[in-house]
Design goal:
2 domains, two-stranded antiparallel ribbon, 8 strands, 23% strand
Length: 243
């Protein structure tokens, strides 16, 4: 009887051990739910912040796939936010591993094209006694045009200031040239370019898309050139196109 009891207990322990192992073998769907839950937790930190706390709030960036999301966070909540951000990044890595393991077919649209569809923050503003993030979709077309001009000058100043000694550290970003949605590719380095340059490029592009959509000008994807790579010419990075 004791022997049977011992075997039963051993079996129960083995089942519990196997069950705990299986819990770690999450599917891509499981990891996606976890990443979305973390994003919601980060977003919840910025809800219902009173207007008189504006000076204590900053917009915190989180990289999500091909773009970034921005969350208003109180100074007192920064540590909590950073912990959630680390957990989100870990879950995102596990999600990518699970997607690859399960053989999911991922979107082949380039990241620069995906970023054109993502709304961008402009400022924090007080509405209904609470702080809210005002985005490129919330402002008027007149303000969008003014902000686009200012942002474009910042981008071009940063581009002109860039130098390079090795092309191996360089990539490129897309920049909408005009109101026809024509695209030019500009050199960009995560280590050598000014910190706000990528942010300004994404903001400028989104403002231009907003203006073009409102005015009904331009084709959706007109004559987009193919990129060969980036080269250093006389100490300056230059994007090479495939003719």
């Amino acid at each position: 009887m004791n022997q049977i009891l011992k075997m039963s207990l051993a079996s129960i322990c083995l089942v519990m051990l196997l069950s705990s192992c299986k819990k770690d073998e999450r599917t891509a769907k499981d990891w996606r739910q976890l990443t979305e839950a973390k994003l919601e937790e980060m977003q919840s930190l910025g809800k219902n912040i009173p207007c008189d706390k504006l000076s204590d709030v900053s917009l915190q960036e989180v990289v999500t796939g091909c773009g970034e999301r921005y969350f208003p966070v109180l100074r007192a909540d920064i540590d909590r936010f950073n912990k959630l951000k680390i957990e989100y990044q870990r879950y995102s890595e596990e999600l990518n591993k699970a997607i690859a393991k399960e053989g999911w077919v991922q979107d082949t649209m380039p990241c620069w094209a995906v970023s054109l569809t993502r709304d961008q923050p402009v400022r924090l503003e007080c509405r209904n006694d609470k702080l809210v993030v005002i985005t490129t979709e919330d402002i008027s077309i007149a303000e969008a045009k003014t902000l686009a001009q200012i942002t474009y000058k910042q981008v071009t100043d940063d581009l002109n200031a860039q130098t390079c000694t090795s092309a191996s550290n360089w990539g490129y970003a897309a920049l909408i040239k005009d109101y026809t949605r024509s695209v030019q590719f500009v050199p960009y380095s995560s280590t050598g370019s000014p910190l706000n340059m990528k942010r300004n490029i994404v903001l400028y592009n989104r403002l231009m898309i907003r203006i073009i959509n409102a005015e009904g000008s331009g084709d959706l994807t007109p004559n987009i050139p193919a990129v060969k790579g980036v080269e250093c010419v006389n100490g300056k990075p230059r994007v090479q196109l495939i003719n």
